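Tutorial handout. Part one gives the primary structure; part two gives the three-dimensional structure as C-alpha coordinates.
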Amino acid sequence: MRFEHGVTDLGATDVAAGYRAVAPDQRGYSPGARPDGVEAYRMPHLVDDVLAIADTMEMRAFDLVGHDWGAYVSWVVGARHPDHVRSLSIVSAPHPGALRKVRESGDQEQAEASRYVEVFQQERKAEALLLGEDGSGSGLTRMFETSGLDPALTDEYLACLTQPGALTAALNWYRALKDEDLDDLPPIVVPTLYVWSTGDPASATGNSTSPVTSSRSAGSSLSASPSSLAVRAKSAAILRRRSAGSSTT
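Part two.
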Protein backbone atom coordinates (compact mmCIF):
# COMPACT_ATOMS: atom_id res chain seq x y z
CA MET A 1 0.00 0.00 0.00
CA ARG A 2 1.26 3.47 -0.82
CA PHE A 3 2.63 5.61 2.00
CA GLU A 4 1.08 9.07 1.50
CA HIS A 5 2.35 10.87 4.59
CA GLY A 6 5.70 12.39 3.81
CA VAL A 7 7.97 9.80 2.19
CA THR A 8 9.05 11.78 -0.86
CA ASP A 9 11.47 11.03 -3.66
CA LEU A 10 15.07 11.60 -2.69
CA GLY A 11 16.99 14.11 -4.74
CA ALA A 12 20.31 13.35 -6.44
CA THR A 13 22.18 15.18 -3.68
CA ASP A 14 20.51 13.09 -0.99
CA VAL A 15 21.31 9.86 -2.80
CA ALA A 16 24.91 10.90 -3.29
CA ALA A 17 25.13 11.59 0.45
CA GLY A 18 23.98 8.02 1.14
CA TYR A 19 20.35 8.66 2.10
CA ARG A 20 17.73 6.04 1.22
CA ALA A 21 13.96 5.91 1.74
CA VAL A 22 12.25 2.52 1.98
CA ALA A 23 8.44 2.20 2.06
CA PRO A 24 7.67 -1.53 1.86
CA ASP A 25 4.33 -3.27 1.70
CA GLN A 26 3.81 -4.76 5.14
CA ARG A 27 3.02 -8.42 5.58
CA GLY A 28 -0.36 -9.42 4.23
CA TYR A 29 -0.53 -6.71 1.57
CA SER A 30 1.58 -8.50 -1.05
CA PRO A 31 0.86 -11.98 -2.42
CA GLY A 32 4.45 -13.04 -1.77
CA ALA A 33 4.31 -12.01 1.89
CA ARG A 34 0.85 -13.11 2.97
CA PRO A 35 1.11 -15.89 5.56
CA ASP A 36 -2.03 -17.74 6.61
CA GLY A 37 -3.49 -17.60 10.09
CA VAL A 38 -3.94 -14.93 12.71
CA GLU A 39 -0.87 -15.96 14.71
CA ALA A 40 1.42 -14.88 11.86
CA TYR A 41 0.37 -11.25 12.45
CA ARG A 42 1.28 -11.01 16.14
CA MET A 43 3.35 -7.97 17.07
CA PRO A 44 6.68 -9.80 17.53
CA HIS A 45 6.52 -10.94 13.88
CA LEU A 46 5.74 -7.41 12.69
CA VAL A 47 8.67 -6.01 14.62
CA ASP A 48 10.95 -8.71 13.24
CA ASP A 49 9.88 -7.72 9.71
CA VAL A 50 11.16 -4.18 10.24
CA LEU A 51 14.49 -5.42 11.58
CA ALA A 52 14.82 -8.00 8.80
CA ILE A 53 14.28 -5.38 6.10
CA ALA A 54 16.88 -3.12 7.68
CA ASP A 55 19.30 -6.03 8.01
CA THR A 56 18.80 -7.05 4.38
CA MET A 57 19.56 -3.50 3.29
CA GLU A 58 22.58 -3.36 5.61
CA MET A 59 21.14 -0.50 7.67
CA ARG A 60 22.54 -0.90 11.16
CA ALA A 61 20.63 2.16 12.36
CA PHE A 62 17.78 3.99 10.67
CA ASP A 63 15.16 6.74 11.03
CA LEU A 64 11.77 5.07 11.36
CA VAL A 65 8.53 6.69 10.12
CA GLY A 66 5.17 5.06 10.78
CA HIS A 67 1.51 5.91 10.20
CA ASP A 68 -1.50 4.18 11.77
CA TRP A 69 -0.67 0.47 12.07
CA GLY A 70 2.85 1.18 10.89
CA ALA A 71 3.12 3.72 13.70
CA TYR A 72 1.93 1.17 16.24
CA VAL A 73 4.68 -1.20 15.12
CA SER A 74 7.19 1.65 15.07
CA TRP A 75 6.51 2.47 18.73
CA VAL A 76 7.38 -1.11 19.67
CA VAL A 77 10.48 -1.21 17.47
CA GLY A 78 11.69 2.04 19.01
CA ALA A 79 11.01 0.83 22.55
CA ARG A 80 12.53 -2.62 22.25
CA HIS A 81 15.34 -1.90 19.79
CA PRO A 82 16.65 1.64 20.40
CA ASP A 83 20.11 0.55 19.28
CA HIS A 84 18.72 0.26 15.74
CA VAL A 85 16.55 3.41 15.66
CA ARG A 86 18.11 6.86 15.28
CA SER A 87 14.76 8.65 15.42
CA LEU A 88 11.03 7.99 15.37
CA SER A 89 8.41 9.94 13.42
CA ILE A 90 4.91 8.83 14.38
CA VAL A 91 1.68 9.88 12.66
CA SER A 92 -1.85 9.32 13.98
CA ALA A 93 -1.19 6.62 16.57
CA PRO A 94 -0.50 7.33 20.24
CA HIS A 95 1.88 5.17 22.21
CA PRO A 96 0.25 1.73 22.79
CA GLY A 97 0.49 2.23 26.55
CA ALA A 98 -1.20 5.62 26.30
CA LEU A 99 -4.06 4.24 24.25
CA ARG A 100 -4.50 1.35 26.68
CA LYS A 101 -4.57 3.72 29.64
CA VAL A 102 -7.28 5.86 28.04
CA ARG A 103 -9.25 2.74 27.08
CA GLU A 104 -9.06 1.31 30.60
CA SER A 105 -10.12 4.65 32.08
CA GLY A 106 -13.57 4.13 30.55
CA ASP A 107 -13.33 7.05 28.13
CA GLN A 108 -16.59 6.68 26.20
CA GLU A 109 -15.61 8.97 23.34
CA GLN A 110 -12.54 6.87 22.54
CA ALA A 111 -14.49 3.65 23.05
CA GLU A 112 -16.95 4.77 20.39
CA ALA A 113 -14.16 5.87 18.04
CA SER A 114 -12.53 2.44 18.40
CA ARG A 115 -15.71 0.47 17.81
CA TYR A 116 -14.65 -0.40 14.28
CA VAL A 117 -11.81 -2.50 15.71
CA GLU A 118 -14.34 -4.85 17.31
CA VAL A 119 -16.02 -5.25 13.92
CA PHE A 120 -12.73 -5.91 12.13
CA GLN A 121 -11.88 -8.61 14.66
CA GLN A 122 -14.96 -10.65 13.77
CA GLU A 123 -13.88 -13.30 11.30
CA ARG A 124 -16.03 -13.66 8.18
CA LYS A 125 -18.45 -10.93 9.31
CA ALA A 126 -15.94 -8.16 8.65
CA GLU A 127 -15.02 -9.63 5.28
CA ALA A 128 -18.70 -9.82 4.32
CA LEU A 129 -19.31 -6.20 5.31
CA LEU A 130 -16.27 -4.84 3.49
CA LEU A 131 -16.27 -6.99 0.37
CA GLY A 132 -20.04 -7.07 -0.17
CA GLU A 133 -22.11 -9.91 -1.56
CA ASP A 134 -20.32 -9.93 -4.90
CA GLY A 135 -16.82 -9.58 -3.46
CA SER A 136 -16.20 -6.31 -5.32
CA GLY A 137 -15.37 -4.36 -2.18
CA SER A 138 -18.48 -2.21 -1.94
CA GLY A 139 -18.02 -1.72 1.79
CA LEU A 140 -14.39 -0.76 1.30
CA THR A 141 -15.41 1.73 -1.38
CA ARG A 142 -17.82 3.45 1.00
CA MET A 143 -15.20 3.52 3.74
CA PHE A 144 -12.57 5.04 1.45
CA GLU A 145 -15.00 7.62 0.07
CA THR A 146 -16.02 8.84 3.54
CA SER A 147 -12.36 8.97 4.65
CA GLY A 148 -11.53 11.60 2.04
CA LEU A 149 -9.15 9.33 0.17
CA ASP A 150 -8.19 10.52 -3.30
CA PRO A 151 -10.56 8.66 -5.70
CA ALA A 152 -7.59 7.79 -7.89
CA LEU A 153 -6.16 5.76 -5.03
CA THR A 154 -9.43 4.02 -4.19
CA ASP A 155 -9.20 1.78 -7.25
CA GLU A 156 -5.58 0.96 -6.44
CA TYR A 157 -6.45 -0.07 -2.89
CA LEU A 158 -9.50 -2.04 -4.00
CA ALA A 159 -7.40 -3.96 -6.51
CA CYS A 160 -5.08 -4.97 -3.70
CA LEU A 161 -7.62 -5.78 -1.00
CA THR A 162 -10.02 -7.74 -3.21
CA GLN A 163 -7.34 -10.25 -4.15
CA PRO A 164 -8.03 -13.72 -2.70
CA GLY A 165 -7.06 -13.71 0.97
CA ALA A 166 -5.80 -10.13 0.98
CA LEU A 167 -8.53 -8.56 3.09
CA THR A 168 -8.40 -11.36 5.66
CA ALA A 169 -4.64 -10.86 5.93
CA ALA A 170 -5.12 -7.12 6.51
CA LEU A 171 -7.80 -7.76 9.13
CA ASN A 172 -5.58 -10.29 10.86
CA TRP A 173 -3.49 -7.36 12.10
CA TYR A 174 -6.46 -6.44 14.30
CA ARG A 175 -7.28 -10.01 15.23
CA ALA A 176 -3.71 -10.75 16.32
CA LEU A 177 -3.42 -7.73 18.59
CA LYS A 178 -2.77 -8.96 22.13
CA ASP A 179 -2.10 -6.80 25.17
CA GLU A 180 0.52 -9.28 26.32
CA ASP A 181 2.63 -8.47 23.26
CA LEU A 182 2.79 -4.86 24.45
CA ASP A 183 3.43 -5.49 28.14
CA ASP A 184 6.51 -4.02 29.80
CA LEU A 185 7.50 -1.78 26.90
CA PRO A 186 10.60 0.20 27.92
CA PRO A 187 10.41 4.01 27.69
CA ILE A 188 11.25 5.54 24.32
CA VAL A 189 14.78 6.95 24.53
CA VAL A 190 15.30 7.97 20.88
CA PRO A 191 14.34 11.43 19.53
CA THR A 192 10.66 11.24 18.59
CA LEU A 193 8.26 13.38 16.59
CA TYR A 194 4.57 12.63 17.16
CA VAL A 195 1.90 14.19 14.92
CA TRP A 196 -1.80 13.61 15.47
CA SER A 197 -4.91 15.07 13.91
CA THR A 198 -7.84 16.44 15.88
CA GLY A 199 -9.96 15.43 12.88
CA ASP A 200 -9.00 11.75 12.99
CA PRO A 201 -12.23 9.77 13.60
CA ALA A 202 -10.29 6.80 14.99
CA SER A 203 -8.55 8.83 17.68
CA ALA A 204 -11.12 10.87 19.53
CA THR A 205 -8.81 11.59 22.44
CA GLY A 206 -5.58 12.68 20.78
CA ASN A 207 -5.28 15.62 23.13
CA SER A 208 -5.69 13.42 26.21
CA THR A 209 -3.39 10.62 25.04
CA SER A 210 -0.57 12.96 24.00
CA PRO A 211 0.65 13.78 27.54
CA VAL A 212 0.66 10.06 28.37
CA THR A 213 2.48 9.38 25.11
CA SER A 214 5.05 12.01 26.05
CA SER A 215 5.55 10.44 29.46
CA ARG A 216 6.58 7.19 27.75
CA SER A 217 9.59 9.01 26.26
CA ALA A 218 12.41 9.13 28.78
CA GLY A 219 13.66 12.66 29.41
CA SER A 220 11.29 14.08 26.82
CA SER A 221 10.14 17.64 26.40
CA LEU A 222 6.75 18.55 25.02
CA SER A 223 5.56 21.40 22.83
CA ALA A 224 2.52 21.74 20.60
CA SER A 225 1.58 23.89 17.66
CA PRO A 226 -1.32 23.83 15.16
CA SER A 227 -0.73 22.42 11.70
CA SER A 228 -2.62 20.45 9.07
CA LEU A 229 -2.58 17.00 7.53
CA ALA A 230 -3.53 16.09 3.97
CA VAL A 231 -5.85 13.28 5.00
CA ARG A 232 -8.77 13.45 7.46
CA ALA A 233 -7.47 16.56 9.14
CA LYS A 234 -8.95 19.82 10.33
CA SER A 235 -6.01 20.75 12.51
CA ALA A 236 -3.10 19.01 14.13
CA ALA A 237 -0.77 19.38 17.04
CA ILE A 238 2.90 18.61 16.66
CA LEU A 239 4.82 17.26 19.61
CA ARG A 240 8.57 17.33 19.49
CA ARG A 241 10.34 15.11 21.97
CA ARG A 242 13.96 14.75 22.84
CA SER A 243 15.88 12.20 24.77
CA ALA A 244 17.94 13.40 27.73
CA GLY A 245 20.79 15.62 26.61
CA SER A 246 19.71 16.00 22.98
CA SER A 247 18.49 19.16 21.30
CA THR A 248 15.06 19.83 19.85
CA THR A 249 14.82 21.04 16.28
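Part three, for discussion. The longest strand covers residues 85-91. The domain at 12-111+176-240 is CATH 3.40.50.1820 (Rossmann fold).
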